[in-house]
Description:
By secondary structure, this protein is an alpha+beta fold. It is 19% helix and 15% strand. It has 2 helices and 3 strands, in the order E-E-H-E-H. The protein has helices spanning 34-40, 73-82; strands at residues 9-12, 19-23, 45-49. It has a 3-stranded mixed sheet, with helices on both faces. Helix 1 links the parallel strand 2 and strand 3 (45-49). The chain is globular.
Amino acid sequence: MRDLSLPxxxxxxxxxxxxVLLLHSSQSSAGxxxxxxxxxxxxxxxxxxxxxxxxxxxxxxxxPESFRFEAEIPRILEALEKAQVRQPVTx
Length: 91
């Protein structure tokens, strides 16, 4: 895994290969994808993300009721930029 210096964001594989973004289900973390990442990294650029408030990601700001997925978008876009992903991403 390559360090992107973003808490809760993990990159594996070659950025020149087709990118895949893995987002975990609630009450989990990017760790749920370990076995899948190991397999996909052979053929893809794999980015897995701890959603806000889970794993190593920053805590959610505000109340849980006020949190929306759109708050994740800036982190995901920053991760894609740091991973040097320059093509469409499979989610």
